[in-house]
Each structure stands twice: as structure tokens, then as C-alpha cells.
Write a structure and sequence with these properties.
The chain is an alpha/beta fold. It folds into 2 domains: 55 residues, 2-Layer Sandwich (Signal recognition particle alu RNA binding heterodimer, srp9/1), CATH 3.30.720; 65 residues, 2,3-Dihydroxybiphenyl 1,2-Dioxygenase, domain 1 (Roll). The chain is 19% helix and 31% strand. It has 2 helices and 8 strands.
Length: 121
């Protein structure tokens, strides 16, 4: 038997990035050391982990030939897209220049990872 426990994001500053996602999701910290920090939802299920990568290169969004490619991104559903966008920006997210869909907002987290806030129309 196997089960997914976490998605791991590389970053030069694991604690900083964990605090950012904690502000968005409200999940409590689990492990917390300089090289490895975890967030897990209180009700259980897969969480997020943050691993120190000194040579982290943020992906480009959208990527062009020769750019650092995005390996994955997080989709975060929101009840109210405008409210979620304001919360993300207050926590330190940057709105991406390219927005591919009407009911989705692509943001870059403090380490440059793209993530999507979305809502059902």
C-alpha cells in the first residue's frame, strides 16, 4: 500500500515559503527546521513540504524555449476569487502577467513557483 503524503516545493528559504502557504491555507506547521518545513491540513490528507535548495531557479510563466520549465503547480480552489487574490497578494504573491482563463488567477509565490487560484463560475 502506498499513499501520497506531500508535494515538496524547493526554495532557498523553506520557513518563509511555508509561512506564505500557511497564510493562504491556514494549515498548521509540522516539521520546522532550517532545511525542511511541513504543513499538513488538520483533517488529514496530503500536505505541502518545503525543502531548502540553495541553487533554486524559479520557473518561467509562461515558459518559452530555453526557459526553466515549470515542473508542477498547485491549484487552490477559492469560494471568492477576488477575496482569495487579495489574501494572496497580502501574503506576498505576485500576479503573473499571463492569465489564461477567466475564472483562474495565476500567481507566483515568494520563491517564484506559479500557483492558481480558481473558482467555479
Amino acid at each position: 500500500m502506498m499513499r501520497l503524503t506531500s508535494t515538496v516545493l524547493g526554495t532557498p528559504e523553506p520557513r518563509k515559503l511555508a509561512r506564505f502557504y500557511q497564510a493562504l491555507l491556514g494549515w498548521p506547521l509540522g516539521a520546522d527546521d532550517p532545511d525542511w518545513v511541513t504543513l499538513r491540513p488538520e483533517g488529514g490528507g496530503p500536505g505541502l513540504s518545503f525543502q531548502r535548495e540553495e541553487d533554486h531557479l524559479p520557473p518561467s510563466w509562461p515558459a518559452h524555449p530555453g526557459d526553466q520549465q515549470m515542473m508542477l503547480h498547485l491549484d487552490i480552489e477559492a469560494d471568492d476569487l477576488a477575496e482569495a487574490a487579495a489574501q494572496a497578494e497580502a501574503a506576498g504573491a505576485q500576479l503573473a502577467a499571463f492569465q489564461p482563463q477567466e475564472h483562474v488567477r495565476v500567481y507566483l509565490d515568494p520563491a517564484g513557483h506559479p500557483f492558481c487560484l480558481w473558482t467555479n463560475p
